[in-house]
Amino acid sequence: MSVKTEKFGRTPSGEEITAYTLDDGHLSFRVLDYGAVLVNVFVPDGHGQKDDIVLGYDNADQYWENPSCFGATVGPVCNRTANATFEIKGQTYHMPVNDGVNNLHTSSEEGKGFFKKLWRAISGEDFVTFLTEVPDGECGLPGTREIVVTYSITVDHAIKIHYHATSDKLTLFNMTNHSYFNLDGAAAGSISDTMLQLFCSSYTPVRAGSIPTGQIASVHGTPMDFTEPKKIGRDIDAPFEQLKLTGGYDHNFCVDGYTGENDLVPVARAWSEKTGRQMDVYSTLPGVQFYTGNFIGDETGKGGVHYGKRCAFALETQFYPDSVNHVNFPKEVFGENEYYDATTKYKFSVR
Predict the structure, then answer these.
(1) Is 157 a known active-site residue?
(2) Of the residues 138, 299, 316, 332, which is catalytic?
(3) The pTM is what?
(4) Any bridge partners for residue 73, and if so which?
(5) Which of 271, 265, 25, 285 is closest to 155 using CA atoms?
(6) Residue 94 catalytic?
(7) Among residues of the chain, what percentage have pLDDT more than 70?
(8) What is the residue-averaged pLDDT of the chain?
(9) Cβ distance 80 to 321 under 8 Å?
(10) What is the pLDDT of residue 111?
(11) According to the model, what pLDDT value does residue 109 have?
């Protein structure tokens, strides 16, 4: 197996963008050095028919905006930070306000944030590594930071994403991949009938603005319970306050097997009864944001297909949202003598 490269347009400032394709004969995927974005994932169904199963765009221009973060590597801090403010050792820091009064995914109006950067790339036989440096103070976060994200194909037909980051000051790191999956094919429409199991017996409820309340609540007896497999759409419109607040599922679930020791543990299993495609998610991280695309606008994606509400789902492995502001949440503070290191696997098979 080797990595294929091809041109994928230019940045607004004229820099050339390169796409990298990894293919093991069963699974193939394509990533960009712009934003370390995952553009395509091709896997077979039960009849051997391969389809692209992630949402995205055909050209570079559409990735400048990318309002739904299709395929994006999100960081340094994914998800929401309350009031765009946090403290480390008594020092207060202010992030860009870009989601009501809060910060979402670190990004600023100036286009800062990981999925708006052109990364340096190094590729090998079965991997491509993206590297970037972040100056002290960018997006309000302290520390001169070095970030490395590696995509690879494993022997069991999985996309493995490895994140590594260092900083010369204590800072926040909480990176994720924001791919949207539809196991019937990216153009197939509703994911209501997709089966899902989350290996998570608790979640973090939110208040208005999708900021965690600080509570860690049991899923049992609620529409949030995916400990046994069920269709994504079965309870999505239930008269449950948490679902009303977010227009469907858009919550962090707490991974039962999390060890804090960088062990890969099962997070989720999703499959299509129509195509037989199955995806298993493993991670070293304590949480996963399950999002059902409740706010995807009428966007034109790959092949001219119009994406809409609930046409795909995301499983974003992460530290809990707003962790830095909750003493009972696993901490996302790293730097000085402690580096950030995390791994997620998306394994594909046929039932």
Answers:
(1) no
(2) 316
(3) 0.97
(4) 177
(5) 25
(6) no
(7) 99
(8) 96
(9) yes
(10) 62
(11) 58
